[in-house]
Known about the structure:
Layout: H1 2-11, E1 21-25, H2 37-48, E2 58-61, H3 76-83, E3 86-91, H4 98-117, E4 120-127, H5 129-132, H6 135-139, H7 148-162, E5 172-176, H8 178-181, H9 187-191, E6 196-199, H10 215-227, E7 235-239, H11 256-271, E8 277-279, H12 347-353, H13 407-426
Parallel strand pairs: 1-2, 1-8, 2-3, 3-4, 4-5, 5-6, 6-7
InterPro entries: Beta-glucan_modifiers (IPR050732), GH (IPR017853), Glyco_hydro_17 (IPR000490)
GO cellular component, one term: cell surface
Membrane topology: Lipid-anchor; GPI-anchor
Amino acid sequence: MYLTTALAFALSLSPAAAVSKGFNYGSTHNDGSFKNQDDFQNEFKTAKGLVGTEGFTSARLYTMIQGGTTNTPISAIPAAIQEKTTLLLGLWASGDTFNDEVAALKSAIDTYGDDFAKLVVGISVGSEDLYRDSTTGIQALAGIGKGPDVIVDYIKTVRSAISGTSLAKAPVGHVDTWTAYANDSNSAVIDNCDFLGLDAYPYFQNTQSNAVSSGKSLFQDAINRVTAHANGKPIWVTETGWPVSGKTENLGIPSTENAKTYWDDVGCGLLFDKVNTWWYILQDADGTTPNPSFGITGTSLTTTPLYNLTCPAVTSTSTSSSATGTASSGSSTGGSTGASTGASTGASTGASTGFATSPGSATGTPGSSGTGSSGVTPTPTPGSNASGTPGSSSTTPTSPAHTGAATSVSASMTGVVAALFALIVAF
């Protein structure tokens, strides 16, 4: 019995090197002009060289389409190939351009081949569409959204588009707020996803005690809410962060000091190298500074951040009954991803969601006013402008379950063997 338990636990683990860690990247500058390959390449290079960090080598995109074109693949792709930056692809699902998004995805596969495919860790169909289509989203004028039936249809369309291609085994999922996932009317979307991308920002939870000192517990509660409805699907953190400047939201005060605290507590403490994470954001003060501003760098794109990104030393904690697991059933080439979180909540929960569970308060997200009691002030949807179009980097607020590379399989097996050995010794 002990050996069986140890084996199950070991299979839920894999080396930290397999976990995606990076930032979100919009497709436009603050002035509305479109980014080109050099722009993306400079951003990816800066992320890799950020002082005090290592391994921020993944990018989450909101659209497959290069700005100013109908369906030409976004120039972030050749930039990622040059910089060896992995990609969480995004297809913008709101509005009327989804067919063009799919066409751009197909074109990218044909144009860039295996050099592209081996960098793709997943494909997100939409971003906060369910929230924007909800009653609260409509009341908040959050922009154009889509309902669950449309998102499910779009997910199936993407699966069909990649079938038989080099991305056939890439996990396909959706990104939304915890309020969307907790709404039972959206359960069909969860059922059709390989992973659930979560956008969560305690700073915006302005009717509760949302000081940065509560950020970690509020963030954890957002995870709990999604976990309760996830049916064992892995949860990837697609957006989170704390602003360096801007307006105060109740006890949520933007500052570089508070951004550092949130980075340490949530990023270093819960996410980095444990759970697939795309932080919001490398730079959003591109020409002008938005309010609030979440950028790691200021108006100049530089490897010197606005605050210290060095993670504090980690004290040893028990990990005997909790494991993270960010593997997706949609991939057989990347293996499972995850690591221990240090929480004692049951291996089965951690293995399926990538997080421990603990009680707490509801957390708000940009673009979300919560569900009644949370009372979060609505803000524009991250990565889009108010009209619901993709890619703006100036609106406030990117796992390898699939890497396309055979090396991830051997790496995962190495992690399994190591974890199994350690657990057998423990028993």
